[in-house]
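Q: For a teaching session next week I want to show students how multiple molecules come together into a single three-dimensional assembly. I've collected the sequence lines for a complex. Could you give me the predicted C-alpha cells for the whole thing so I can convert them for display?
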Amino acid sequence: MRIIDARYLKSVRTPEDAEVGELPEICFVGRSNVGKSSLINALAAQRVARTSSRPGATKMINIYKVLYESKGRRDWVIFSDFPGFGYARVSREMARDWRRMVEGYLLTNDRIRRVIWLFDVRRDPDDLDRMLVEWFIAKGLPFSPVLTKVDKETQGNIARKRRSFEAFVDGARAHLFSSRTGYGKKELLIHIRQVLHGEDSDSIS
Ligand SMILES: Nc1nc2c(ncn2[C@@H]2O[C@H](COP(=O)(O)OP(=O)(O)OP(=O)(O)O)[C@@H](O)[C@H]2O)c(=O)[nH]1
Ligand SMILES: [Mg+2]
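A: Of course. Below is the structure for the complete assembly, covering every listed component.
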C-alpha cells in the first residue's frame, strides 16, 4: 500500500461532524506526546498532521482524507488523529471532557475499521493503559498496538519491551515504529491495507 495524497479536512468532536460519507476510518490514539501526529505524517510521507512539543495541545479529533494505492487500485480512507490522554497537567474537567468526546466518537462511529493504539516503547504500561485495553476489549473495538519511538531504544530493550507489552495486550501483535527513521513504516502500511481489505488475522477483538 502506498499513500498518494493526504489532506487535512477538519477538526471535529463527533463522527457526524466529519462529513465523510461512508469512507472507512482508521483512528490513531494514545497518550499525549506518544507520536500520533508524527506517525501520520511519516505514513503519508508529508507534513499534514500538526505535531507539537507541547503535550496536550490537541483538543479535537483531526480528520485527514487519505488517497492510497494498493494492488493497482486507488481508494480513500480517513485517518483520524486523536488528542492525547493522560497528560498530568490537564484539569479534571478537561480529562472528563476528553474522555466523553473520545469514548463517544469511538462508540458511535461505524466507519471505524481499526483503532491504532500508540505506545511509547520507553514507558511501562500503568493503570490508565490497563483501563484503556480493557475498555477496547469490553466494547469490542478492534485495536492494533504500535510501539513508537523505537529509535530511542536498543535492539535488546525493544525485543524485551515488545514481549512484555504483547503479554499486556493479551497476545495481540505489537508493531514497532519510528517516525524519525521510518522503521516499521512499510509493515504498518501493509497491516492497514490488510485491515481495510479484511485480510487481517493477527489482532484481537
Ligand atoms: N525520537 C523520536 N521522536 C519522536 C518520534 N515520533 C514523535 N517524536 C517526537 O515526539 C514529540 C511528540 O510528537 P507528536 O507526533 O506531536 O505526538 P502526539 O502523540 O501527536 O502528541 P499530542 O497530539 O500532543 O498528544 C515531538 O517532539 C516529536 O518530534 C519518533 O519516532 N522518534
Ligand atoms: Mg498530535
